[in-house]
């Protein structure tokens, strides 16, 4: 009961942040004009800025942040490791490889893309899923040892990264610039379609997440006790893992390699709301959304008129917290 | 000495010679010999002023990274400790980029110092955490902490460079090491500490052996565990810092070299220390030769080559041993 | 649904605003543009030069790759022009705020944001972004409704090329080598690059490894012997932190570089990176002709 109020506060804070993100930007629009534009009245410019530029951007930032945070929370639970995050499973680097393969495979000699660029997310998601699958298969032999999943993830991520670097050097100059921006993770080019992709993934995951909340809590017990409660441990773990990969792949495919959200948001959620899945998961999603929104707001304010990828600064937001976490874990272990 | 060890020793001069011969233009041993004796002409210049320095650099940096990995692995009893994976390289690179762009530092000496400082800072962070967690922190946890810290430091580097989009090309440069066309001016600064640490490691082999057992045994044998471990880690960090200053960040070499030395039959540190340095040098030479041919006429970054070759080794290690089990 | 109606409404609004519209076919399709656009936003460096050459001052432009924010050779003509980000990081909001009536971009750079740009104003996109800027120039002048003026600029330029080529005479039999220094790499430039196209039009011969329909080779110092020619032009991409310049100095003092025939003969020329490569437009092309005329001592 006592935690209901903070959760409401969090929702309110996120809404406030979203409103600020719609109102602020390279050309600040006063609140009354934002509201007018939202209702379809205001000036044409205001309407375009609000409807075609800021709202998709805000929606994508929020959805991608939420998806990454949920993915991280699920991963930390299934691996029982507080340091697990989507990028560690090779998902981000796999997606990056997918993007580069796309850019290079479909470019002709004059560097022209032979297919519309809207297909790029498909390849990113494909790369992400492929690497996550490879990691899972490799670790498959060692059932019930989630730690090995992460070790294989780290190794395959290093491989993918090496391939990415090589491709950037071999490939045409124009493309490597594009790839670098993608790698950093950006939402400033967002349109409604991008936000819709991630939102659809979140919607699809929602019913499963609701059903998983209970079993996920039981999973926190050790394997034997969890099994004794009649929980299909393997099935729960596999479902959570697949869900985690799918959410991360969806987010990464359109927003690029935004880092640290999947790592930090679940921790913050646990710290604030305890570790019951029914509270942790929604709180993590809200915090993740807030992190990316905040990061995007920060780059808009700090670097204008240049658009710097928001992913470049999520680390700055996540870093202090991560360091705090490391020292705390150290103390707990000691 | 074991047979594999002798083989490695014989391989080194052969590889060094090959490194002088192979590249965009392939030279015969005669041309190499003439060039080394001071012949004139473009070919001689290529061999003497370009291939010779990069060969020397590969030998030194390879040996340093190998030793660095060994010291980390022994001090933490962790078979997958390595400067690249644990974020030490990333710390050094970030420090250099920060030094250049924020503090306006210039010159090789300052860069070398920054790299060393960054490496030591990152080492303190990662291992401070590991050691605070008790001596028996599972290897995987250390790796995870290192990888995450590494990602954090890289994104710091990325922010600094991305702020100036025109400098994007340089990001690639700092993300990946190379032996070719590196200014050797840092050598007088980096060589003395590297040599000193190598000598110290050779003198302290017994301590390193004892460190690898467990704390109780070590104390009983009269070895101050904490102090020795700290010294080994600081030495490892300095080695990594020097290596980054010389050739940029290179991953996986420090991981693979000690294991290769063990495969070659080295059991205790009296054999491990020299053999690991030898393996590191051999691996660096092989990687450098591969880097010249992989995407010719361009040069592949060494760290991409070492990752392509080293990651499968890590995979094999993971499959052979039950490392991650906590 | 709401979005759909909104877009339709906006499109209607846009149509009403530009009564006399023309259709322009470009890389992303066909777009109706106003007859005489007055507020133009330009999203490529070479496009900025095209506009200036046609006497059109853009209301907004992406900043130059080097320079703060504009290249030296266009800075005085770009006063008061709003910076709207960089070629690969366009700031959409700033463009919207400028209320342009025409946006000109490039597919390679801005395909992803074509829809958003089109919502702001009619958007025309060129396809390639390589050596031959003339193709894009034609499209840009058509889009601006300045087809005739564009033809005039182009005719004048072509005439200059023909005159200079004649004046150069036998000098064009020289194999000219084009080298660029960047942080961490050296590039040997080939035919399908800005300098390559113009040198070819002038009739210059090129060394074997450069007489190739490609962009550039990315090499290290070992390839210095492959950089030789009867004459070498080199330029340095210097984003401002000294790394490019440092490499250039390192190579230029390297004994291997000094062993090149062109260097021994003193036929080596440091030229401006913006003019010879990075700016990539009609103004730079004219300046490059000036450079060549000056270097060969041909009065123009």
UniProtKB/TrEMBL annotation, chain A:
Predominant subcellular localization, coarse grouping: membrane
GO terms (BP aspect): siderophore-iron import into cell
GO cellular component: plasma membrane
Keywords: Cell membrane, Membrane, Transmembrane, Transmembrane helix, Transport
CDD domains in the record: TM_ABC_iron-siderophores_like
Cell compartment(s), UniProt: Cell membrane
A GO MF term: transmembrane transporter activity
Topological category with respect to the lipid bilayer: Multi-pass membrane protein
Annotated Gene3D superfamilies: ABC transporter involved in vitamin B12 uptake, BtuC (1.10.3470.10)
InterPro entries found in the cross-reference section: ABC_BtuC-like, ABC_transptr_permease_BtuC
Segments passing through the bilayer: 58-75, 87-106, 118-138, 150-175, 235-261, 281-299, 306-326
Family according to the record: Belongs to the binding-protein-dependent transport system permease family. FecCD subfamily.
PANTHER family membership: FE(3+) DICITRATE TRANSPORT SYSTEM PERMEASE PROTEIN FECD-RELATED, FERRIC ENTEROBACTIN TRANSPORT SYSTEM PERMEASE PROTEIN
Name of the protein: Iron complex transport system permease protein
Lineage, opening ranks: Bacteria, Pseudomonadati, Pseudomonadota, Alphaproteobacteria, Rhodobacterales
From TrEMBL, chain B:
Record's keyword annotation contains Protease: no
UniProt-listed Gene3D superfamilies: ABC transporter involved in vitamin B12 uptake, BtuC
A cellular component term, taken from the record's GO annotations: plasma membrane
GO biological process: siderophore-iron import into cell
Keyword Iron-sulfur in annotation: no
Compartment(s) of residence: Cell membrane
InterPro entries the UniProt entry points to: ABC_BtuC-like, ABC_transptr_permease_BtuC
Any one GO molecular-function label of the UniProt entry: transmembrane transporter activity
Pfam families hit by this protein: FecCD
Residue ranges of the TM segments: 50-72, 84-102, 108-130, 142-163, 183-204, 230-252, 272-291, 300-318
Annotated membrane topology: Multi-pass membrane protein
Protein keywords: Cell membrane, Membrane, Transmembrane, Transmembrane helix, Transport
Chief localization: membrane
Family: Belongs to the binding-protein-dependent transport system permease family. FecCD subfamily.
PANTHER family: FE(3+) DICITRATE TRANSPORT SYSTEM PERMEASE PROTEIN FECC-RELATED, FERRIC ENTEROBACTIN TRANSPORT SYSTEM PERMEASE PROTEIN
Protein name: Iron complex transport system permease protein
UniProtKB/TrEMBL annotation, chain C:
UniProtKB keywords: Ion transport, Iron, Iron transport, Signal, Transport
SUPFAM superfamilies according to UniProt: Helical backbone' metal receptor
Signal peptide: 1-21
InterPro entries named among the record's database cross-references: ABC_transptr_periplasmic_BD, Bact_iron-sidero_bind
Protein's cellular compartments: Cell envelope
Cellular component GO terms held in the UniProt record: outer membrane-bounded periplasmic space
Protein name in UniProt: Iron complex transport system substrate-binding protein
Gene3D superfamilies: Nitrogenase molybdenum iron protein domain
Fe/B12 periplasmic-binding domain segment(s): 39-300
Family affiliation: Belongs to the bacterial solute-binding protein 8 family.
Gene Ontology BP terms: iron coordination entity transport
């Amino acid at each position: 009961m006592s935690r209901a109020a903070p959760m409401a506060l969090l929702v309110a804070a996120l809404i406030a942040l979203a409103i600020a993100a719609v109102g602020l930007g390279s050309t600040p629009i006063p609140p009354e004009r934002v509201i007018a534009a939202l209702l379809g009245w205001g000036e044409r410019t205001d309407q375009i800025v609000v409807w075609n530029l800021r709202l998709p951007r805000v929606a994508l930032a929020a959805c991608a942040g939420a998806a990454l945070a949920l993915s991280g929370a699920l991963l930390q639970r299934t691996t029982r490791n507080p340091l697990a995050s989507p990028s560690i499973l090779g998902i981000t680097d796999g997606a990056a490889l997918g993007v580069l393969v796309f850019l290079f495979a479909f470019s002709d000699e004059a560097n022209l893309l032979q297919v519309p660029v809207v297909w790029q997310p498909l390849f990113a998601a494909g790369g992400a899923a492929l690497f996550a699958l490879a990691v899972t298969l490799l670790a498959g032999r060692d059932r019930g040892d989630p730690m090995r999943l992460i070790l294989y993830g780290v190794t395959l991520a290093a491989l993918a990264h090496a391939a990415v670097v090589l491709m950037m050097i071999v490939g045409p100059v124009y493309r490597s610039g594009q790839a670098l921006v993608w790698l950093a993770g950006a939402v400033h080019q967002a349109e409604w379609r991008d936000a819709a992709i991630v939102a659809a993934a979140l919607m699809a995951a929602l019913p499963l997440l609701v059903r998983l909340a209970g079993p996920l809590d039981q999973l926190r017990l050790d394997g034997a006790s969890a099994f004794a409660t009649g929980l299909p441990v393997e099935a729960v773990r596999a479902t959570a893992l697949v869900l985690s990969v799918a959410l991360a792949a969806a987010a990464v495919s359109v927003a690029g390699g935004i880092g640290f959200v999947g790592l930090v948001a679940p921790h913050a959620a646990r710290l604030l709301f305890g570790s019951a899945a029914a509270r942790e998961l929604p709180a993590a999603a809200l915090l993740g959304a807030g992190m990316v929104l905040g990061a995007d707001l920060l780059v808009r304010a700090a670097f204008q008129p240049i658009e710097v990828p928001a992913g470049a600064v999520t680390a700055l937001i996540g870093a202090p917290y991560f360091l705090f976490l490391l020292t705390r874990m150290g103390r707990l272990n000691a | 000495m074991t047979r594999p060890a002798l083989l490695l020793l014989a391989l080194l001069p052969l590889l060094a010679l090959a490194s002088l011969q192979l590249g965009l233009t392939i030279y015969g041993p005669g041309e190499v010999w003439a060039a080394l004796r001071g012949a004139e002409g473009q070919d001689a210049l290529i061999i003497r002023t370009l291939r010779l320095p990069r060969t020397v650099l590969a030998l030194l940096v390879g040996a340093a990274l190998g030793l660095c990995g060994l010291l980390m692995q022994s001090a933490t009893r962790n078979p997958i400790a390595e400067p690249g994976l644990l974020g030490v390289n990333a710390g050094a690179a970030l420090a250099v980029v920060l030094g250049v762009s924020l503090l306006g530092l210039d010159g090789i000496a300052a860069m070398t110092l920054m790299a060393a400082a960054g490496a030591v800072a990152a080492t303190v962070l990662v291992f401070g955490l590991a050691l605070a967690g008790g001596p028996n922190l599972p290897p995987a946890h250390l790796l995870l902490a290192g990888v995450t810290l590494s990602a954090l430091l890289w994104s710091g580097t990325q922010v600094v460079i991305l702020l100036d989009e025109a400098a994007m090309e340089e990001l690639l440069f700092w993300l990946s090491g190379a032996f070719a066309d590196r200014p050797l001016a840092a050598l007088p600064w980096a060589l003395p500490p590297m040599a000193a640490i190598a000598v110290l490691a050779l003198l302290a082999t017994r301590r390193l052996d004892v460190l690898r057992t467990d704390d109780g045994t070590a104390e009983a044998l009269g070895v101050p565990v904490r102090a020795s471990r700290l010294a080994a880690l600081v030495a490892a960090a300095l080695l990594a810092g020097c290596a980054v200053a010389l050739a940029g960040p290179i991953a996986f070499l420090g991981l693979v070299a000690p294991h290769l030395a063990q495969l070659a039959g080295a059991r205790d540190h009296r054999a491990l220390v020299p053999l690991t340095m030898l393996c590191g040098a051999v691996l660096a030479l092989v990687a450098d030769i591969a880097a010249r041919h992989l995407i010719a006429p361009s040069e592949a970054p060494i760290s991409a080559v070492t990752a392509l070759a080293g990651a499968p080794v890590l995979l094999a290690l993971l499959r052979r041993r039950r490392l991650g089990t906590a | 649904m709401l979005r759909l109606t909104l877009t339709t409404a906006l499109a209607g609004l846009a149509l009403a605003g530009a009564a006399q519209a023309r259709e322009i076919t470009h890389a992303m399709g066909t777009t109706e543009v106003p007859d005489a656009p007055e507020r133009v936003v330009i999203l490529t460096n070479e496009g900025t030069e095209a506009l200036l050459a046609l006497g059109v001052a853009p209301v907004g432009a992406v900043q130059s790759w080097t320079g703060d924010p504009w290249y030296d050779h266009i800075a005085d003509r770009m006063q008061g022009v709003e910076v709207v980000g960089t070629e690969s990081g366009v700031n959409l909001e700033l463009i919207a705020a400028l209320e342009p009536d025409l946006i000109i971009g490039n597919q390679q750079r801005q395909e992803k944001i074509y829809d958003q740009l089109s919502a702001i104003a009619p958007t025309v996109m060129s396809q390639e972004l390589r050596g031959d800027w003339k193709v894009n120039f034609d499209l840009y002048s058509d889009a601006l409704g300045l087809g005739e003026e564009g033809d005039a600029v182009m005719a004048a330029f072509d005439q200059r090329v023909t005159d200079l080529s004649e004046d150069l005479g036998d000098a064009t039999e020289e194999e000219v080598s084009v080298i660029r220094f960047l942080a961490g790499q050296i590039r040997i430039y080939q035919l399908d690059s800005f300098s390559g196209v113009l040198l070819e039009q002038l009739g210059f011969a090129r060394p074997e490894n450069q007489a190739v329909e490609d962009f550039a080779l990315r090499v290290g110092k070992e390839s210095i012997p492959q950089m030789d020619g009867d004459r070498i032009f080199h330029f340095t991409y210097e984003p401002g932190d000294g790394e490019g310049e440092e490499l250039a100095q390192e190579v230029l003092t390297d004994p291997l570089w000094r062993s090149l025939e062109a260097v021994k003969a003193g036929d080596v020329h440091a030229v401006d990176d913006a003019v010879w490569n990075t700016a990539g437009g009609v103004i730079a092309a004219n300046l490059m002709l000036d450079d060549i005329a000056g270097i060969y001592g041909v009065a123009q």
